[in-house]
From TrEMBL:
Top-level taxon: Bacteria
Protein name as annotated: GGDEF domain-containing protein
GGDEF domain ranges (all copies): 345-477
UniProt key word Ligase: no
Protein source organism: Actinoplanes auranticolor
TM region(s), chain numbering: 45-63, 70-89, 95-117, 124-142, 148-169
Signal peptide extent: none
């Protein structure tokens, strides 16, 4: 149980655990050095300054660990503090321990240039401290003696090893973090059915990769009638979106210097003639980073294809295979929603039954009948106008849902337009034919359900057929009653 609790208190990542261990060991070494303050050739004031300097070094090590980064001024202040602290020790050679304690922990932070500067300054403090206090345990030691200078290469090697460990662990964590981003993106993309959502998720993933790898950028180029243009970016201003770029950037990305100043190194990945991935960096971009952006782009391409397939399957499942109009189930879902949300009089339903359609089938065959149904379906859609929903309910029966009506006359006018459109001669492959339509109109009233509205329109439609066909009849509860 105790071991489990200790593990829970430890940082999760290997790098953070290594930093914690290095900080703890360094602080132990610095704390041990405090007991050695008291060089007999230095004044009490120097002893106090030495003690304070070592404490400040320890505070800098701890603060760096807590903040997770090393400030630039450490490269200046730490060598001075180590020199003052080491010169006050009983054995000035123990300055080696101070320098190593600092190098042990701070090699795990900051850019390489700052690490080199800090390491050189920290190790230079050893001969300087010995030069200030050249007597060690009763014997004189020269600052340039093999005893002093001979330790510096070994300390430098140990510092370089710690730096190598740091770089390896940081690379491992970044790779793991990128893999997590890619895995999460792929998992989330499976459930998406909209192309825009897929592309938005792809940009989010690309931005996450940029955040894990500072100094890189991504550009997605797509082609349309304008030519190549910027479709998506990560690590660059969004003001670049929709800008056209010359075709030459695909073969020679030097043309991107104006588009992305400071990014001199580019890699181009071509997915198709209309889609290109460009990965740029202020320095040469590592292959694993390019591979991560390539994976995201592949995920987006596959996600887009899945969305298109889903849309096609959804359309086939909910639309009539012949006319392309919504099926009965889809239409009545629309009708339910419209009657629930619409105000009385703003929603109307037209049920349309073709007259004499059977004669066309019998005379010219079912192929001609199918051709006529396709033609009349298009006429009904056009006559219904924007905002209307047409459907083929089966056989030669259609429906038209009207919403946003201003008054009862609107539905009547649309019904007459539909009737005139249907009765107009239709030129088919083998003949020109004419059919009519019996149309029933029912307007939604307060509290009217989709089922009631359908029954009312059905009653009106059969009344129109009973009164001579090719007519428009409005449902009137005082005159027409459901059977």
């Amino acid at each position: 149980m105790t071991v489990t609790r200790i593990r829970q208190l430890l940082p999760a990542g290997n790098l953070d655990r290594t930093r914690l261990a290095a900080t703890a060991l360094g602080c132990l070494g610095l704390a041990a050095a405090l007991a050695q303050v008291g060089n007999e050739y230095r004044s009490p004031g120097w002893h106090r300054a030495s003690f304070l300097a070592i404490v400040l070094v320890m505070a800098a090590v701890v603060l760096t660990h807590l903040r997770g980064r090393a400030p630039w001024w450490d490269a200046v202040t730490l060598p001075v503090l180590i020199t003052v602290g080491g010169a006050g020790l009983r054995d000035p050679l123990a300055t080696i321990g101070l320098s190593f304690a600092v190098a042990l922990g701070l090699s795990l932070y900051g850019p390489t240039g700052l690490w080199v500067l800090r390491t050189v300054g920290t190790f230079a403090a050893i001969p300087v401290a010995v030069a200030i206090s050249p007597i060690s345990l009763g014997r004189v030691i020269s600052w340039h003696s093999p005893t002093v200078l001979g330790m510096l290469p070994m300390l430098a090697l140990m510092s370089a090893m710690m730096r190598g460990i740091y770089l390896a662990l940081r690379h491992q964590e970044r790779v793991s973090a990128r893999d997590a981003v890619l895995a999460q993106t792929g998992s989330r993309m499976i459930s998406l059915t909209e192309v825009t959502a897929v592309r938005r998720l792809g940009v989010e993933a690309a931005n996450a990769i940029v955040a894990l790898t500072p100094g890189v950028a991504m550009v997605i180029l797509r082609r349309d009638e304008r030519g190549l243009f910027v479709k998506a970016v990560a690590g660059l201003p969004e003001s670049l979106l929709d800008r056209t770029v010359p075709e030459s950037v695909v073969t020679g990305p030097a043309g991107l210097e104006e588009l992305a100043p400071g990014f001199r190194h580019w890699r181009v990945e071509t997915f198709s003639a209309d889609l290109h991935l460009l990965v740029g960096g202020r320095n040469p971009v590592a292959e694993d980073v390019v591979a991560a952006f390539r994976t995201v782009s592949n995920q987006v391409v596959l996600g887009e294809a899945a969305c298109v397939s889903h849309a096609e399957l959804d359309h086939r499942a909910h639309h009539d295979h012949l006319t392309g109009l919504p099926t009965r189930d889809k239409f009545f879902r629309e009708l339910d929603a419209a009657t629930a949300a619409g105000t009385p009089g703003s929603v109307a339903l037209l049920l349309i039954d073709l007259d004499d359609f059977k004669a066309v089938n019998d005379t010219y065959g079912h192929a001609a009948g199918d051709e006529l149904l396709v033609e009349l379906a298009g006429r009904i859609v056009r006559a219904g106008g924007p905002g209307s929903v047409a459907a083929r309910l089966g056989g030669d029966e259609f429906a038209l849902l009207l919403t946003g009506l201003g008054g009862p006359g609107d539905a009547d006018a649309t019904a007459r337009t539909v009737s005139a459109a249907i009765v107009a001669p239709a030129r088919l492959t083998d003949a020109t034919v004419t059919v009519g339509a019996s149309i029933g109109i029912a307007a939604a009233t307060a509290g009217c359900t989709a089922g009631e509205l359908t029954r009312h329109a059905d009653v009106a439609m059969y009344a129109a057929k009973a009164h001579g066909k090719n007519r428009v009849e409005r449902y009137d509860p005082e005159r027409l009653q459901p059977a």
